[in-house]
Predict the 3D structure of the following.
Amino acid sequence: MLPKPFAVALNDATRLTLNVGEYFSGDVIAFSTQYVAALHHYAKDVDTDLLPKVATAPTVGEFPIRLDKAGTHLFSYDSHPNSITLGGEKFNAYLHDEGLDTIVKQREEAGNLLKPARERYRRFVKTLVQAGDVSDATFGIRTRQRFEIVPLTDPLAAVAGDRLGFTLYFEQKPLANALLKAWRVDGNQTLMIRARTDAAGQVAFDLPYAGTWMLSVVHMIPATGTTEYDYDSLWGNLTFSLKAPLRR
């Protein structure tokens, strides 16, 4: 989910868009209940369920919203479940890319490394938008999504080169040893920085450039209560815009 723009004047509107793809590059999809299972808006004294305002027509590409409170606005989005089946080698490569070593080990021990895998996945997404000149503590609100990246320091008050900390939560508990990726795209160049969460579910990045950043992470568990899928995966995501340092 990306806002256009990330910062607005008080009482101006931003437009939320949904994008799917790989490597921080993807296609815009309909901002409709076909894809949106939950949409929430948080700000100072604001805690609003936006799902009733989401279009039911699958042709609507954006969700405009006027920001009449100064400060930080946090939007969270949960997708409906989707599914995919991958061949054994392709699935193993995907597990390697996302740092899902536990699943690789389980498949190896069960003799399933070469078997196809049926995966059911959902997206748990957040984005930060600023209205007016000053951000606030809204960046750290816990949305209580099933899978959630929570900043420890204010990304909207930071500048390029600052160290930013985050905590990753799965089912409201910190998740250790998860691989997070910080992405930035500039024209045809893509920068990706990797780091794993510590025992407290925390991770820190030194983000060297101003502009739009996306944090992404995948967590996977064996599927239960179903014979249709082998695994459930949760795709976490956080986007924000980082300011350039002041020139002296």
